[in-house]
Structures are given as C-alpha cells and as structure tokens.
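Notebook B, p. 112. Complex prediction, attempt 2.
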Amino acid sequence: MSRAVEESNRRMLRARDAMDRDYAKPLDIQTLAGIAHVSDAHFIRVFRATFGETPHRYLQRRRVERAMFLLRETERSVTEICCDVGFMSLGTFSRTFTDIVGEPPTTYRWRAADLSAVPACFAKAWTRPSSFGEARTPPED
Amino acid sequence: MPNKITHTQVYVLDQDEALDFYVGKLGFEPNTDADLGFMRWLTVSFPGQPDHQLLLEKPGPPAHDDATAEQIRELVTKGAMGMAAIISVDDIHQTYEELVAHGVEFTDEPTERFYGTDCGLRDPFGNHLRIGTPKEGPIEIPDPAEFAPDSTP
C-alpha cells in the first residue's frame, strides 16, 4: 500500500469521525467531502471503497442507532427523536428506520419496552418468529 | 505470579512522527530508544511513571512480511486497530483546550459519563486514544437497560 492510500484512509476516517460526532447536525456531502479535502464525487466513491458502504448509509445507520437508544430509554415522541438524531423529515426517518431495523419506530419502542420488563427467557420465546405472523422477525442489519 | 503491566504496544507508521506526537503533544517523555539492529525499540512513559511504557512499534520486516505490514498500515489508518490506551488527567476540560490549541485531532468533546468525563482523540496515524478525568469514589455500573451512553467511535 502506498503512502497515498494511507493518507486517503486517514482523510476518510476524519470524515467518518465527524459523522459519529455530529450526526444530529445537517451534515451533507459537501461538508463531509470538505473535511476529507476531496471532491464530492471522489469522496463518495473512496469512502465506500474504504469502509464498505456509502457515507450516506453510514450516517443513516449512525442516526438510526441513536434513535433506537432514545426510543428505548426516553419518553420523547417519535417526531422529537426524528429531529434529535438529524432527520429533516418524519417520512424519511420512518422509512429509513424501518429499512434498517426491520420494523417502524413505534413498533420498535413498544417491543423494546415490553422486552425490558420480562425475564430474558420469556423475551427469547416471545420474540421468536412465529408462523402465525403475530410476532416480528428479528431486526436485520 | 503475574502482577503488573509494564509495556503496552501501539503500531505507528513513523517513529519520529510518533515521538513528536506522544512526547511533544500528549506529555509523555522518551523512555527507551534503542537500535536493536532488527528493530528500533522505542518506548515512552509519563513523567514519574517509567514502569509503564508505551511501545511505539513500526510494522515491517522481520516481524512482518511486506504484505502483512501493508495490511497493518491500512487498518491503522482506517482506525480499525481498537483503542491504544486510556489516559487520565486531573482536569480534562483544561487539557482538552490545551490539546486542541496544539492541533490534536479529537473525535468527540469531553462528555460526562458514569465513570467520569472523557473524550476521544486520534494520533497522527489513526489510532484511537481516550483521555479523561475518572470520577472520584466508587463507580456504579448502570443497569444494562440504561447503559447506552452516547456512543463513541
């Protein structure tokens, strides 16, 4: 590997750190590419080659992970949480959350709340995918 | 019986640049700098604590073939080598400001957590270190249900 690749990795890591830190802010590709000191198109392509997914997807997963935490541990409304983690539109938030977690935010909150109240052995049995369709399949990621 | 950690290791891509950072910015002092022929044994430690040294090791032959060394260099620069060390300071807020002024790259700002107040930084090569002020007194580990701190890289 050349020094150029090492320098490139380092720049992409800097942009990824910014996403981990500032996920709640309206980060766009221009901002992130600026942090990495590369052009927008170059940034998307090289980030994906470096970390295995596009910067957009990485940021979505980061935001959804924080949303899952807030849904589980706070009483904040789904709309508030949507804004808390940096989404501009409730529709986009719900669609993205469902896409990544496998169920909508409200369903996740309801299920997660119930899970914490029962012993693990019950939770295990209760969340097992059912052939009758009343239980959700486990989240996919 | 085994009773003490005397050395821990972190991969660095350039040992002189590593010295500039760990000594020049983080406040370590050079401990041992020995040319062993097959490698440069380079360690740093904090003032007054020479019994815990951080080995600044450069990947390469003879320990690694060229291809393996390249893989290590790639993982280091991607930030994939895990956490090199956790460092404690008396006043993390003051230290944070000082290190920022020295151009140290932080991944997150000082944040209060159940174990104290800490933040994360990267060395010039991509290694992750955490630095903070531990909480005084016994630390209570929160219940798993409530233990989901605003995560860090």
